[in-house]
Amino acid sequence: MTERTIRIDAMTRVEGEGGLYVRLRDRAVEELRLEIYEPPRMFEGLLRGRPLEDAPDITARICGICPVAYQMSSIHALEAALDIRVAPEIRAMRRLLYCGEWIQSHALHVFLLNSPDFLGYDNGLDMVTEYPEEVNRGLRMKKHGNQLLEAIGGRAIHPINVTVGGFFRCPERETMQRLIPDFEWCLQAAIETTRWVAGFEFPEFSADYQLVALSHDDEYPMNEGRIVTSDGESIDVTDFESEFEERQVPHSTALHCHRKKTGQPYFLGPLARVGLNTDRLSPQAKRLADDVGITWPCFNPFQGIVARSLELVHAFEEALAILRGYQPAKPNRIDYVRQSGQGCAATEAPRGLLYHRYRIDDDGKILQAKIIPPTSQNQAQIEADLRRWVSQILTDDDATTARQCENLVRCYDPCISCSTHFLKLKIDRT
Protein backbone atom coordinates (compact mmCIF):
# COMPACT_ATOMS: atom_id res chain seq x y z
CA MET A 1 0.00 0.00 0.00
CA THR A 2 1.54 3.32 -1.04
CA GLU A 3 0.27 6.70 0.07
CA ARG A 4 1.05 9.90 -1.79
CA THR A 5 0.05 13.53 -1.18
CA ILE A 6 -0.18 16.34 -3.71
CA ARG A 7 -0.62 19.85 -2.34
CA ILE A 8 -1.08 23.19 -4.11
CA ASP A 9 -0.67 25.82 -1.41
CA ALA A 10 -1.94 28.71 -3.52
CA MET A 11 -3.52 28.50 -6.95
CA THR A 12 -2.43 31.12 -9.47
CA ARG A 13 -4.41 33.05 -12.07
CA VAL A 14 -7.65 32.98 -10.09
CA GLU A 15 -9.17 35.85 -8.11
CA GLY A 16 -8.54 35.21 -4.42
CA GLU A 17 -6.59 32.68 -2.40
CA GLY A 18 -7.15 28.96 -2.25
CA GLY A 19 -5.29 25.66 -2.28
CA LEU A 20 -5.81 22.04 -3.20
CA TYR A 21 -5.00 18.95 -1.14
CA VAL A 22 -5.06 15.46 -2.68
CA ARG A 23 -4.21 12.22 -0.87
CA LEU A 24 -3.77 9.11 -2.99
CA ARG A 25 -3.58 5.48 -1.94
CA ASP A 26 -2.38 3.06 -4.59
CA ARG A 27 -3.14 5.64 -7.29
CA ALA A 28 -6.76 6.01 -6.14
CA VAL A 29 -8.05 9.31 -4.74
CA GLU A 30 -8.66 8.77 -1.03
CA GLU A 31 -9.22 12.41 -0.07
CA LEU A 32 -9.48 15.67 -2.05
CA ARG A 33 -10.13 19.13 -0.64
CA LEU A 34 -10.44 22.44 -2.46
CA GLU A 35 -9.31 24.57 0.45
CA ILE A 36 -10.56 28.16 0.55
CA TYR A 37 -8.89 29.89 3.44
CA GLU A 38 -9.66 33.53 2.84
CA PRO A 39 -11.27 35.11 5.91
CA PRO A 40 -15.05 35.50 5.96
CA ARG A 41 -16.04 38.93 4.71
CA MET A 42 -19.42 39.32 6.42
CA PHE A 43 -21.06 41.55 3.80
CA GLU A 44 -24.50 40.31 4.76
CA GLY A 45 -23.85 41.51 8.31
CA LEU A 46 -22.43 44.84 7.11
CA LEU A 47 -25.70 45.59 5.34
CA ARG A 48 -27.98 45.09 8.33
CA GLY A 49 -29.27 48.37 9.71
CA ARG A 50 -28.10 50.39 6.71
CA PRO A 51 -30.42 52.43 4.46
CA LEU A 52 -31.42 50.41 1.41
CA GLU A 53 -29.75 53.00 -0.82
CA ASP A 54 -26.35 51.95 0.59
CA ALA A 55 -26.65 48.39 -0.71
CA PRO A 56 -25.44 48.94 -4.31
CA ASP A 57 -22.23 50.68 -3.22
CA ILE A 58 -21.49 48.23 -0.41
CA THR A 59 -22.15 45.08 -2.41
CA ALA A 60 -20.01 46.38 -5.28
CA ARG A 61 -17.01 46.00 -2.96
CA ILE A 62 -17.52 42.23 -2.84
CA CYS A 63 -15.67 42.01 -6.16
CA GLY A 64 -13.51 44.40 -8.17
CA ILE A 65 -13.93 42.28 -11.32
CA CYS A 66 -17.72 41.99 -11.33
CA PRO A 67 -19.09 44.84 -9.18
CA VAL A 68 -21.94 45.51 -11.61
CA ALA A 69 -23.41 42.05 -11.02
CA TYR A 70 -23.57 42.69 -7.28
CA GLN A 71 -24.99 46.17 -7.76
CA MET A 72 -27.62 45.04 -10.24
CA SER A 73 -28.66 42.03 -8.16
CA SER A 74 -29.08 44.19 -5.06
CA ILE A 75 -30.99 46.86 -6.99
CA HIS A 76 -33.36 44.39 -8.64
CA ALA A 77 -34.06 42.68 -5.30
CA LEU A 78 -34.73 46.00 -3.54
CA GLU A 79 -36.93 47.19 -6.39
CA ALA A 80 -38.91 43.95 -6.07
CA ALA A 81 -39.36 44.68 -2.35
CA LEU A 82 -40.54 48.23 -3.13
CA ASP A 83 -42.60 47.20 -6.19
CA ILE A 84 -40.63 49.53 -8.49
CA ARG A 85 -40.90 49.20 -12.29
CA VAL A 86 -38.29 51.11 -14.26
CA ALA A 87 -38.65 52.63 -17.74
CA PRO A 88 -37.39 50.74 -20.83
CA GLU A 89 -34.59 53.32 -21.31
CA ILE A 90 -33.24 52.62 -17.82
CA ARG A 91 -33.52 48.90 -18.39
CA ALA A 92 -31.51 49.23 -21.64
CA MET A 93 -28.81 51.24 -19.85
CA ARG A 94 -28.52 48.53 -17.23
CA ARG A 95 -28.01 45.86 -19.90
CA LEU A 96 -25.41 48.09 -21.55
CA LEU A 97 -23.59 48.42 -18.23
CA TYR A 98 -23.73 44.65 -17.83
CA CYS A 99 -22.25 44.24 -21.34
CA GLY A 100 -19.28 46.33 -20.21
CA GLU A 101 -18.69 44.07 -17.23
CA TRP A 102 -18.93 40.86 -19.24
CA ILE A 103 -16.52 42.29 -21.80
CA GLN A 104 -13.77 43.29 -19.39
CA SER A 105 -14.11 40.13 -17.29
CA HIS A 106 -14.30 37.66 -20.19
CA ALA A 107 -11.45 39.31 -22.10
CA LEU A 108 -9.24 39.12 -19.00
CA HIS A 109 -10.01 35.46 -18.43
CA VAL A 110 -9.79 34.27 -22.03
CA PHE A 111 -6.47 35.93 -22.88
CA LEU A 112 -4.51 36.23 -19.64
CA LEU A 113 -5.84 33.52 -17.32
CA ASN A 114 -7.15 30.58 -19.36
CA SER A 115 -5.54 30.49 -22.81
CA PRO A 116 -1.99 30.09 -21.37
CA ASP A 117 -3.07 26.66 -20.07
CA PHE A 118 -3.96 25.47 -23.56
CA LEU A 119 -0.84 26.96 -25.16
CA GLY A 120 1.68 25.75 -22.56
CA TYR A 121 2.58 29.05 -20.87
CA ASP A 122 2.82 29.91 -17.19
CA ASN A 123 0.99 33.22 -17.66
CA GLY A 124 -0.41 35.60 -20.25
CA LEU A 125 2.68 37.78 -20.40
CA ASP A 126 4.81 34.82 -21.49
CA MET A 127 2.56 34.50 -24.54
CA VAL A 128 3.45 37.94 -25.89
CA THR A 129 6.49 36.84 -27.88
CA GLU A 130 4.66 34.18 -29.88
CA TYR A 131 1.12 35.60 -29.74
CA PRO A 132 1.51 39.41 -29.67
CA GLU A 133 -1.52 40.05 -31.87
CA GLU A 134 -3.82 37.90 -29.73
CA VAL A 135 -2.64 39.38 -26.41
CA ASN A 136 -2.98 42.94 -27.70
CA ARG A 137 -6.44 42.11 -29.02
CA GLY A 138 -7.51 40.88 -25.59
CA LEU A 139 -6.07 43.88 -23.77
CA ARG A 140 -7.77 46.29 -26.17
CA MET A 141 -11.15 44.59 -25.77
CA LYS A 142 -10.81 44.74 -21.99
CA LYS A 143 -9.86 48.42 -22.23
CA HIS A 144 -12.98 49.29 -24.22
CA GLY A 145 -15.15 47.31 -21.81
CA ASN A 146 -13.73 49.43 -19.00
CA GLN A 147 -14.45 52.60 -21.00
CA LEU A 148 -18.09 51.60 -21.28
CA LEU A 149 -18.25 51.01 -17.52
CA GLU A 150 -16.74 54.44 -16.93
CA ALA A 151 -19.15 56.16 -19.33
CA ILE A 152 -22.24 54.75 -17.64
CA GLY A 153 -21.06 53.90 -14.15
CA GLY A 154 -18.73 56.81 -13.46
CA ARG A 155 -15.68 54.57 -13.09
CA ALA A 156 -14.60 51.12 -14.21
CA ILE A 157 -14.10 49.58 -10.76
CA HIS A 158 -16.96 49.82 -8.26
CA PRO A 159 -19.18 52.13 -10.38
CA ILE A 160 -20.90 54.91 -8.46
CA ASN A 161 -23.69 55.98 -10.82
CA VAL A 162 -26.22 53.18 -10.25
CA THR A 163 -29.02 53.49 -7.73
CA VAL A 164 -32.36 52.03 -6.81
CA GLY A 165 -34.86 53.27 -9.40
CA GLY A 166 -32.33 54.10 -12.12
CA PHE A 167 -29.13 56.14 -12.37
CA PHE A 168 -27.88 59.32 -10.73
CA ARG A 169 -27.22 60.72 -14.19
CA CYS A 170 -27.37 59.59 -17.80
CA PRO A 171 -24.41 60.19 -20.12
CA GLU A 172 -24.99 62.42 -23.13
CA ARG A 173 -25.74 60.79 -26.45
CA GLU A 174 -22.51 62.19 -27.95
CA THR A 175 -20.45 60.51 -25.23
CA MET A 176 -21.95 57.14 -26.05
CA GLN A 177 -21.70 57.62 -29.83
CA ARG A 178 -17.94 58.09 -29.53
CA LEU A 179 -17.65 54.48 -28.31
CA ILE A 180 -19.18 52.99 -31.46
CA PRO A 181 -16.09 52.82 -33.75
CA ASP A 182 -14.02 51.02 -31.12
CA PHE A 183 -16.87 48.61 -30.40
CA GLU A 184 -17.22 47.84 -34.11
CA TRP A 185 -13.54 46.88 -34.12
CA CYS A 186 -14.04 44.86 -30.94
CA LEU A 187 -16.93 42.89 -32.41
CA GLN A 188 -14.71 41.63 -35.22
CA ALA A 189 -11.91 40.98 -32.72
CA ALA A 190 -14.28 38.90 -30.57
CA ILE A 191 -15.33 36.86 -33.62
CA GLU A 192 -11.65 36.17 -34.43
CA THR A 193 -11.05 35.28 -30.79
CA THR A 194 -13.86 32.73 -30.78
CA ARG A 195 -12.49 31.04 -33.90
CA TRP A 196 -9.00 31.06 -32.38
CA VAL A 197 -9.93 29.43 -29.06
CA ALA A 198 -12.27 26.94 -30.75
CA GLY A 199 -9.14 25.54 -32.41
CA PHE A 200 -7.43 24.71 -29.11
CA GLU A 201 -6.86 21.06 -28.24
CA PHE A 202 -9.38 20.18 -25.52
CA PRO A 203 -9.04 17.21 -23.16
CA GLU A 204 -11.64 14.47 -23.40
CA PHE A 205 -13.44 15.21 -20.15
CA SER A 206 -17.13 15.66 -19.55
CA ALA A 207 -19.82 14.63 -17.09
CA ASP A 208 -23.57 14.52 -16.77
CA TYR A 209 -23.70 17.98 -15.20
CA GLN A 210 -26.90 19.70 -14.24
CA LEU A 211 -26.42 23.04 -16.00
CA VAL A 212 -28.19 25.96 -14.30
CA ALA A 213 -28.72 29.47 -15.67
CA LEU A 214 -31.27 32.20 -16.11
CA SER A 215 -33.37 32.16 -19.25
CA HIS A 216 -35.58 34.91 -20.70
CA ASP A 217 -38.25 34.62 -23.37
CA ASP A 218 -37.03 37.57 -25.44
CA GLU A 219 -33.30 38.07 -24.81
CA TYR A 220 -30.05 36.49 -23.76
CA PRO A 221 -30.08 36.35 -19.95
CA MET A 222 -28.17 38.98 -18.03
CA ASN A 223 -30.28 40.63 -15.34
CA GLU A 224 -33.70 39.00 -15.58
CA GLY A 225 -35.37 35.66 -16.24
CA ARG A 226 -36.41 32.35 -14.76
CA ILE A 227 -33.92 29.74 -13.53
CA VAL A 228 -33.74 26.80 -15.93
CA THR A 229 -31.74 23.58 -15.85
CA SER A 230 -30.50 21.08 -18.41
CA ASP A 231 -32.98 18.60 -16.90
CA GLY A 232 -35.87 20.71 -18.18
CA GLU A 233 -36.79 22.50 -14.95
CA SER A 234 -38.08 26.07 -14.93
CA ILE A 235 -37.88 27.70 -11.50
CA ASP A 236 -39.06 31.13 -10.41
CA VAL A 237 -36.30 33.17 -8.77
CA THR A 238 -38.48 33.55 -5.67
CA ASP A 239 -38.16 29.78 -5.18
CA PHE A 240 -34.35 29.77 -5.27
CA GLU A 241 -33.87 29.02 -1.58
CA SER A 242 -36.38 26.16 -1.63
CA GLU A 243 -34.50 24.52 -4.53
CA PHE A 244 -30.84 25.29 -3.77
CA GLU A 245 -29.02 24.94 -0.47
CA GLU A 246 -25.76 26.24 1.00
CA ARG A 247 -23.71 23.94 3.21
CA GLN A 248 -20.56 24.43 5.22
CA VAL A 249 -17.69 22.02 4.74
CA PRO A 250 -14.88 21.71 7.31
CA HIS A 251 -12.03 22.53 4.93
CA SER A 252 -13.32 25.78 3.40
CA THR A 253 -14.44 29.23 4.43
CA ALA A 254 -16.59 29.25 1.29
CA LEU A 255 -19.93 27.52 1.50
CA HIS A 256 -20.82 24.79 -0.99
CA CYS A 257 -24.18 24.64 -2.77
CA HIS A 258 -26.29 21.63 -3.73
CA ARG A 259 -29.75 20.92 -5.05
CA LYS A 260 -32.02 20.37 -2.07
CA LYS A 261 -33.99 17.48 -3.55
CA THR A 262 -31.00 15.47 -4.78
CA GLY A 263 -28.06 16.67 -2.68
CA GLN A 264 -26.05 16.94 -5.90
CA PRO A 265 -23.87 19.86 -7.07
CA TYR A 266 -24.66 21.84 -10.20
CA PHE A 267 -22.81 23.85 -12.87
CA LEU A 268 -23.01 27.62 -13.45
CA GLY A 269 -21.31 30.04 -15.85
CA PRO A 270 -20.92 30.77 -19.57
CA LEU A 271 -20.97 27.08 -20.55
CA ALA A 272 -24.35 26.69 -18.83
CA ARG A 273 -25.72 29.99 -20.19
CA VAL A 274 -24.77 29.28 -23.79
CA GLY A 275 -25.93 25.69 -23.56
CA LEU A 276 -29.34 26.63 -22.20
CA ASN A 277 -29.82 29.81 -24.28
CA THR A 278 -28.10 29.16 -27.62
CA ASP A 279 -31.13 30.33 -29.58
CA ARG A 280 -31.12 33.69 -27.76
CA LEU A 281 -27.55 34.65 -28.66
CA SER A 282 -27.10 37.68 -30.92
CA PRO A 283 -27.13 36.88 -34.66
CA GLN A 284 -23.36 36.75 -35.19
CA ALA A 285 -22.78 34.88 -31.93
CA LYS A 286 -25.49 32.37 -32.87
CA ARG A 287 -23.89 31.72 -36.26
CA LEU A 288 -20.51 31.22 -34.60
CA ALA A 289 -22.00 28.82 -32.05
CA ASP A 290 -23.23 26.73 -34.97
CA ASP A 291 -19.83 26.86 -36.70
CA VAL A 292 -17.33 26.08 -33.91
CA GLY A 293 -17.85 22.33 -33.98
CA ILE A 294 -19.35 22.04 -30.49
CA THR A 295 -22.73 20.50 -29.75
CA TRP A 296 -24.74 22.66 -27.37
CA PRO A 297 -25.37 22.15 -24.55
CA CYS A 298 -21.73 21.23 -23.97
CA PHE A 299 -20.63 19.30 -20.89
CA ASN A 300 -16.84 19.67 -21.18
CA PRO A 301 -15.66 22.38 -18.74
CA PHE A 302 -12.47 22.92 -20.75
CA GLN A 303 -14.59 24.22 -23.63
CA GLY A 304 -15.97 26.95 -21.40
CA ILE A 305 -13.39 29.26 -22.99
CA VAL A 306 -15.33 28.96 -26.26
CA ALA A 307 -18.59 29.82 -24.49
CA ARG A 308 -16.95 32.87 -22.89
CA SER A 309 -15.71 34.01 -26.28
CA LEU A 310 -19.19 33.61 -27.77
CA GLU A 311 -20.50 35.78 -24.96
CA LEU A 312 -17.88 38.38 -25.84
CA VAL A 313 -19.32 38.46 -29.36
CA HIS A 314 -22.84 38.73 -27.97
CA ALA A 315 -21.91 41.50 -25.53
CA PHE A 316 -20.28 43.63 -28.23
CA GLU A 317 -23.13 43.05 -30.67
CA GLU A 318 -25.82 43.92 -28.12
CA ALA A 319 -23.83 46.90 -26.84
CA LEU A 320 -23.56 48.27 -30.38
CA ALA A 321 -27.30 47.94 -30.90
CA ILE A 322 -28.01 49.86 -27.68
CA LEU A 323 -25.32 52.48 -28.35
CA ARG A 324 -26.63 53.23 -31.84
CA GLY A 325 -30.14 53.90 -30.55
CA TYR A 326 -29.12 55.43 -27.23
CA GLN A 327 -31.04 58.37 -25.82
CA PRO A 328 -30.61 59.59 -22.21
CA ALA A 329 -33.43 58.31 -20.01
CA LYS A 330 -35.81 61.02 -18.83
CA PRO A 331 -36.23 60.87 -15.91
CA ASN A 332 -32.98 59.10 -15.09
CA ARG A 333 -34.54 57.54 -11.99
CA ILE A 334 -38.00 57.19 -10.58
CA ASP A 335 -39.15 58.23 -7.13
CA TYR A 336 -40.33 55.67 -4.60
CA VAL A 337 -41.68 55.54 -1.08
CA ARG A 338 -39.76 53.62 1.55
CA GLN A 339 -41.85 50.81 2.97
CA SER A 340 -41.41 47.42 4.57
CA GLY A 341 -41.10 44.45 2.30
CA GLN A 342 -38.98 41.61 1.01
CA GLY A 343 -37.58 41.04 -2.46
CA CYS A 344 -35.15 38.77 -4.22
CA ALA A 345 -33.46 38.75 -7.61
CA ALA A 346 -30.93 36.81 -9.64
CA THR A 347 -28.65 38.10 -12.37
CA GLU A 348 -25.94 36.45 -14.44
CA ALA A 349 -22.52 37.55 -13.23
CA PRO A 350 -19.65 36.69 -15.60
CA ARG A 351 -19.08 33.50 -13.57
CA GLY A 352 -22.72 32.48 -13.25
CA LEU A 353 -25.99 33.04 -11.45
CA LEU A 354 -25.86 35.45 -8.50
CA TYR A 355 -28.74 35.56 -5.98
CA HIS A 356 -29.69 38.38 -3.57
CA ARG A 357 -32.56 38.65 -1.08
CA TYR A 358 -33.34 41.61 1.20
CA ARG A 359 -35.89 42.35 3.91
CA ILE A 360 -36.44 46.01 4.77
CA ASP A 361 -38.47 47.87 7.40
CA ASP A 362 -40.88 50.81 7.15
CA ASP A 363 -37.98 53.29 7.27
CA GLY A 364 -36.13 51.59 4.41
CA LYS A 365 -33.48 50.03 6.68
CA ILE A 366 -32.14 46.62 5.75
CA LEU A 367 -33.19 43.99 8.30
CA GLN A 368 -31.73 40.98 6.54
CA ALA A 369 -29.53 40.31 3.51
CA LYS A 370 -28.74 37.03 1.77
CA ILE A 371 -26.11 36.91 -1.00
CA ILE A 372 -25.15 33.68 -2.75
CA PRO A 373 -22.29 34.21 -5.25
CA PRO A 374 -21.69 32.00 -8.29
CA THR A 375 -18.28 30.68 -7.22
CA SER A 376 -19.62 29.29 -3.94
CA GLN A 377 -22.38 27.61 -5.95
CA ASN A 378 -19.78 26.07 -8.29
CA GLN A 379 -17.41 25.00 -5.50
CA ALA A 380 -18.88 21.54 -4.90
CA GLN A 381 -18.96 20.84 -8.63
CA ILE A 382 -15.30 21.86 -8.98
CA GLU A 383 -14.35 19.42 -6.22
CA ALA A 384 -16.35 16.63 -7.84
CA ASP A 385 -14.65 17.34 -11.19
CA LEU A 386 -11.21 17.30 -9.59
CA ARG A 387 -11.78 13.84 -8.10
CA ARG A 388 -12.50 12.43 -11.55
CA TRP A 389 -9.82 14.52 -13.28
CA VAL A 390 -7.00 13.45 -10.94
CA SER A 391 -7.68 9.81 -11.73
CA GLN A 392 -7.54 10.59 -15.44
CA ILE A 393 -4.33 12.67 -15.54
CA LEU A 394 -2.32 11.22 -12.65
CA THR A 395 1.40 10.91 -13.37
CA ASP A 396 4.44 10.10 -11.24
CA ASP A 397 5.40 13.78 -11.36
CA ASP A 398 3.50 15.68 -8.67
CA ALA A 399 4.21 19.06 -10.28
CA THR A 400 2.69 17.98 -13.58
CA THR A 401 -0.37 16.52 -11.87
CA ALA A 402 -0.80 19.69 -9.80
CA ARG A 403 -0.61 21.89 -12.87
CA GLN A 404 -3.26 19.82 -14.66
CA CYS A 405 -5.53 20.23 -11.63
CA GLU A 406 -5.03 23.99 -11.69
CA ASN A 407 -5.89 24.03 -15.38
CA LEU A 408 -9.28 22.50 -14.64
CA VAL A 409 -10.01 24.91 -11.78
CA ARG A 410 -9.17 27.92 -13.95
CA CYS A 411 -11.69 26.79 -16.58
CA TYR A 412 -14.37 27.75 -14.08
CA ASP A 413 -12.78 31.21 -13.63
CA PRO A 414 -13.48 31.06 -9.89
CA CYS A 415 -13.72 34.29 -7.92
CA ILE A 416 -12.67 32.92 -4.57
CA SER A 417 -12.89 36.22 -2.70
CA CYS A 418 -16.52 36.62 -3.79
CA SER A 419 -17.43 33.20 -2.47
CA THR A 420 -16.15 33.64 1.10
CA HIS A 421 -19.12 35.49 2.47
CA PHE A 422 -20.02 33.55 5.61
CA LEU A 423 -18.60 31.04 8.06
CA LYS A 424 -19.88 29.36 11.18
CA LEU A 425 -17.00 28.59 13.53
CA LYS A 426 -17.06 25.66 15.93
CA ILE A 427 -14.08 24.91 18.20
CA ASP A 428 -13.86 21.47 19.78
CA ARG A 429 -11.57 21.71 22.84
CA THR A 430 -12.00 18.17 24.13
Describe the structure.
The protein is of the alpha+beta class and 430 residues long. The protein folds into two domains: 3-37 and 398-419, no CATH class; 43-387, Cytochrome-c3 Hydrogenase, chain B. Helices cover 43% and strands 16% of the residues. It has 14 helices and 13 strands. A hairpin with a 5-residue loop joins strand 12 (352-360) and strand 13. Helix 9 crosses helix 11 and helix 10 (283-291) runs antiparallel to helix 11 (304-324). It is globular and about 70 Å long.
Query: How many strands, which pairing sense, and closed or not: the largest β-sheet?
Result: 3 strands, antiparallel
N/C terminus separation: 33 Å
Q: What do we call the CATH topology of the largest domain?
A: Cytochrome-c3 Hydrogenase, chain B
Name of the level-1 CATH class of the largest domain: Mainly Alpha
CATH superfamily of the largest domain: Cytochrome-c3 Hydrogenase, chain B
Rg, nearest Å: 21 Å
Strand order of the largest sheet: 1-2-3
Q: What are the secondary-structure elements, in order, as H or E?
A: EEEHHHHHEEHHEEEHEEHHHEEEHHH
Number of domains: 2
Number of helices, where a helix is a run of at least 4 consecutive DSSP H or I residues: 14
Sheet/helix structural class: alpha+beta
Helix content: 40-55%
Count the strands?
13
